[in-house]
Design a protein that fits this description.
Elements (H helix, E strand, L loop, with lengths): L3 H8 L4 H7 L1 E5 L1 H9 L4 E6 L1 H7 L8 E2 L2 H7 L8 E6 L10 E6 L4 H13 L4 E4 L9 H7 L7 E4 L2 H4 L5 E10 L9 E6 L7 H6 L2 E5 L11 H12 L3
Parallel strand pairs: 2-3, 5-6, 5-9, 6-7, 8-9, 8-10
Antiparallel strand pairs: 1-4, 2-4
Helix pairs in contact: 6-7, 6-10
Length: 239
């Protein structure tokens, strides 16, 4: 069983400050924990309650420590913890670059970032570039939303004008070219902007880019960032 000191430390991982201090974060749910354990991602420990072990133990594909329900609830970031979670270490993945990449400028919503990572994984996109003001990868809501896809997508944080220099960028804007009429390309970077303000004009001025848009027939002003990413990937990357 983990020590009381360990449990206190793991409780602090709710805060970005302490995640960065300890270089640790929480992964929750049986599917994600099993995928984590089967990968080469470094893991500090996997914690499981006796009740979860009794009901679901045959589906746990990893070594674990037992922990009381109250202790696990204190560490968990969910309202209704599943009964198993992992404490994983920060890790810089290296992967073969895919033909397409996604870049995110100031995405604030953890659910959007997690879903976009999952979309990238679905379309075989192995690299995601994030501006420094994009929500943190190790935020628990981000990790939860990826459903394990964070294990397969390399997230690189930095200055986008530097990371995207020399690349063919497709920037999602309201007044861009109709994405449905664009000719197919073999490679490129899909650039998605902040949920409220879009892509920073200062960034666009520094990048060679093609402005693209998704025409709509209704009256809403814009699409959710993750929805727009999925539609653009289907048009640009698929096939």
């Amino acid at each position: 069983m983990p020590s009381k000191a360990n449990i206190r430390q793991y409780q602090q991982l709710r805060s970005k400050k302490f995640r960065q201090k300890y270089s640790l974060f929480v992964v929750e749910g049986l599917k994600s924990v099993n995928e984590l354990a089967a990968s080469d991602w470094p893991v500090e420990t996997i914690l499981c309650t006796p009740a979860f072990l009794e009901s679901t133990g045959d589906k746990i594909e990893a070594k674990f420590e037992l922990i009381s329900p109250d202790e696990l609830a204190a560490i968990s970031h969910l309202k209704n913890p599943q009964g198993i979670l992992a404490i994983a270490k920060f890790h810089n993945r290296e992967s073969e670059p895919s033909a397409w990449q996604i870049a995110l400028d100031g995405i604030n919503d953890p659910g959007n970032l997690g879903t976009i990572i999952r979309i990238a994984d679905w379309y075989g996109i192995s690299t995601l570039y994030c501006s420094s003001d994009t929500v943190e990868l190790y935020n628990s809501k981000v990790i939860q939303s990826t459903m394990g896809s964070f294990l397969r997508v390399n997230v690189i944080v930095g200055e986008l004008d530097v990371l995207l220099a020399g690349k063919h960028v497709f920037a999602t804007l309201l007044d861009g070219e109709n994405i449905r009429t664009l000719p197919k390309r073999e490679n490129g970077v899909l650039l998605i902007g902040n949920e409220a303000n879009g892509i920073q004009p200062e960034l666009l001025e520094k990048l060679s880019h093609t402005a693209i848009t998704i025409p709509g027939n209704g009256h809403t002003e814009s699409l959710n960032a993750a929805m727009a990413t999925a539609i653009c990937c289907e048009r640009l990357v698929s096939g």
